[in-house]
Amino acid sequence: MTPPAGAVAPAITADLSRKLIRSSPELWSYDPPILAGLARGHTKAEIAQTTGTPLGTVQNRILRLRRRLGALSCAHMVAIAYQRGWMAKLPPEPRPPVRLSPRQLAVLEGIAAGMTTHQLAATLDMSKDTAVTHLRRLYTALGASRPGSSPSVSRAHAVALGYQHGHLVAHPLAASHPS
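Request: output the structure for the sequence above.
Response:
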């Protein structure tokens, strides 16, 4: 029997040993561990190793999740996950209290919204080099950068730390969307 058009199958068998289950209309069962890895500042290779998933599969899943959510970047995707309450069970990383300057907070809000460095510079009326300097200072203040990690990883981690420690506030009603 064929399901009605537009119906979502509750489970799809990827191979004989693994069932994929939708945990919400936008999330598959494999998405939360990927989001948690990004929120913890892990690289795609580290997420692949931790989850026992091939790197190419992790990269593909991140790309597909970004498309499903309409996220502009991994940092934006992490922000959406916090806004929708999907990261509520992820315990905050222990960090000493940090006071961000108004400029650092504006930069953090911009990367949470998915802005690129050029967009941040234009929006905040500064040069690209000044925006990069503010990003570096933000990562250092939050403890979001690691030697050798990409800017994408640092941005996603900074956004997660921003939500975990109250610099960014989730507004679930603002994040709701029509089904």
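The first strand starts at residue 11 and ends at 15.
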